[in-house]
Amino acid sequence: MSERIRFAGILHDPAHGPLPGLLLLLTAVTGVIDAVSLLTLGRVFVANITGTIVALGLGLAGAPGVVRETALVALVAFVLGAYAGGRMIARFGGHRGLLLLRATAVELVFVLVAIPVSVPLTVSVATSLRAVLAAGILAFGMGIQNAAVRRLKVPDITTTVVTMAVTGLAADQRGGGRESITRRVLVVLALLAGAALGAALVLWAGPALALAVGALMIVVVLVVAALTSRVPQDWHKPR
Fold first, then answer.
1. Which of 148, 146, 120, 149 is closest to 134 using CA atoms?
2. pLDDT band at residue 5, thresholds of 50, 70 and 90?
3. Residue 176 lies inside a defined structural domain of this protein
C-alpha cells in the first residue's frame, strides 16, 4: 500500500499538483506525433527539434530519405511556436494551471488542423506540399508545448527530450533518489509507448488516426487542467 501511495505522489504531489501525470501523458503524445512525422513526413521530427536539426543537416548533404524542405519548415515552425508559447507565458506564467490549459488548448487546435491535411499521406519519403504543411502545423504546436513545459518546471519531465532523463539515471549517484528515478523511468517509458502506439496506428490505418488519438490524449490533459485550475491551489504558483 505504501508503494502505491508513493507512486501516486510522484504523479500528483503538493508542489506540482497533477502536473507530473499530465506531462507524462504529453510525453506520450510527443511519441505519437514524432512517430507520424518520422514515418510519413520526410523522415523528420517535429517535436524533438534536435533530431530535426540533424535531419536538416543530412538533407543539406543530400542524404537519401530525408526531405530538407520539410525539415527546414519544421524547424522554423517550431521556433515560431516556441515564440508564441513565450507570449502565453508572459500572460499566464503566474498560474501554472492556466498556462498548461491555454497552451494545450492551442496545441490541440493545431493537431486537429493537421489531421485532414495528413489523410492522404502514407509511409514513404514524403515530398508533397501536404507533408511539408503537416510538418509545419505540428511543429508549431509542439513548439508551444515545449515552451510551456519549460516554464512549468516539473523536475525530470520535459515531454519532448528524454536524453537528460536517461543521462541522469546513469550518471547521478543513486539516480537522484527514488522519486527522481521513478519519474525518469516513467518519462522514458511514456515516450517509448507513445512512439510505439503512433507507429502501430500509422502502419495499420494511416497518420490521420494516429493524430486523432494524440488529439484525444491532449483533450484529457486539457480537461484535467481545466478542472484543477478552477480553485486556487499552491501548485498553481510559478516555481
1. 120
2. very low
3. yes
Tell me, what DSSP letter sits at residue 94?
T
Residue spans of beta strands (DSSP E) within the chain: none
Segment 186-222, tens digit of pLDDT: 999 999 999 999 999 999 999 999 999 999 999 999 9
Question: How far is the C-alpha of 72 from the C-alpha of 89, rounded, in Å?
Answer: 26
- Report how far residue 10's alpha carbon sits from residue 12's, in angstroms, rounded to the nearest whole number: 6
Q: What is the pLDDT of residues 43-65, one digit of tens each?
A: 889 999 888 899 889 888 988 77
Which of 135, 121, 97 shows the shortest CA–CA distance to 19?
A: 97
**The pLDDT of residue 10 is above 70:** no
Is there a domain that residue 24 lies in?
yes
Cell, residue 143: 513548439
pLDDT of residue 3: 46
Alpha-carbon dihedral 213, 152, 84, 28, rounded to 10 degrees: -20
Closest by CA to 139, choosing from 209, 19, 38, is: 38
Residues 53 and 59: beta-carbon distance below 8 Å:
no
**What's the structural domain count of the chain?**
1
CATH number at residue 48: 1.20.1250
Cell match 480553485: residue?
231
Domain containing 195: what range? 20-232
Placement of cell 487542467 in the chain? 225
Q: What is the pLDDT of residue 173?
A: 55
Is 191 in contact with 27 (CB distance < 8 Å)?
yes
Least confident of 14-23, 118-127, 191-200: 118-127
